[in-house]
Design brief:
This protein is mainly β. The chain has five helices and 14 strands. β4 and β5 form a beta hairpin.
């Protein structure tokens, strides 16, 4: 598997859609998670991330300009015990509620499919981090249409045990820009995580997202021993 430079990878496309990055810090002491949203329409760009308990939610920056909250307003991050859930839609709540009833991450997502925004059929991407015995494991999922055909849903789950320090996986909704937008293909990409603090990583990710299309970014470092975390939020709208 090719190990990619984080900055170069973010710079490689003007529009990734939404993206999730999960991995382990270079010193092996922290779980690292990042979630960003990009937008092309005025409605999609009219958003900010705000704190919501142990997680975050999206919120209209200017309520008077919000045309349709469907698929736009949701909680991207929620925490359930030793698990941190990160997704690009309201499937965050599905995962939280069904895992709280002892279902697995994969079982919870079998109740959902891609977004109903034909002709793009935007994939639902999800990630989950579990802390256990001073270490972590994580999984990522993508639910997408069958080559743009909305009559069929394809579900893929990728699980990572004993992840290597300084490495992360990156999944995003779209393969590239287009009309309609083509869905992400293949396994999540492997990124090299720089040996740096949360502020430097946040700055690195934000600076390398396309200036015109980036909307909001969330980054969290979670201590593997204690479960304590620190987070950063960056919003283009201020």
């Amino acid at each position: 598997m090719e190990i990619r430079n984080l900055a170069n990878e973010l710079n490689s496309l003007p529009y990734h859609g939404r993206g999730i990055i999960i991995g382990k810090s270079a010193d092996g002491k922290k779980a690292v998670a990042a979630y960003f949203i990009m937008g092309r329409s005025e409605n999609s760009r009219n958003r900010v991330f705000v704190e919501d308990g142990e997680g975050i939610r999206t919120q209209a920056f200017d309520e008077s300009k919000m045309v349709d909250p469907h698929l736009i307003i949701y909680a991207p991050v929620r925490v359930l015990g030793n698990k941190t859930i990160v997704t690009n839609g309201d499937q965050t709540d599905t995962i939280y509620e069904l895992m709280d009833k002892q279902m697995t991450f994969e079982q919870a997502l079998r109740t959902r499919e891609f977004e109903d925004d034909a002709p793009n059929y935007t994939p639902r991407i999800s990630g989950i981090i579990r802390l256990e015995n001073g270490d972590m494991n994580y999984a990522m999922s993508i639910l997408k249409s069958a080559d743009g055909d909305g009559s069929s849903c394809q579900r893929y789950t990728f699980a990572y045990s004993n992840p290597l320090p300084g490495k992360a996986k990156f999944i995003h909704t779209y393969k590239c820009d287009g009309n309609p937008l083509p869905s992400f293909e293949g396994e999540p990409k492997t990124l090299e995580l720089p040996d740096t603090d949360i502020d430097s990583l946040t700055d690195l990710i934000w600076k390398n997202l396309n200036e015109d299309n980036k909307v909001s970014l969330f980054v969290r470092y979670i201590d593997l021993e204690t479960g304590k975390y620190e987070s950063r939020i960056v919003n283009k709208n201020k």
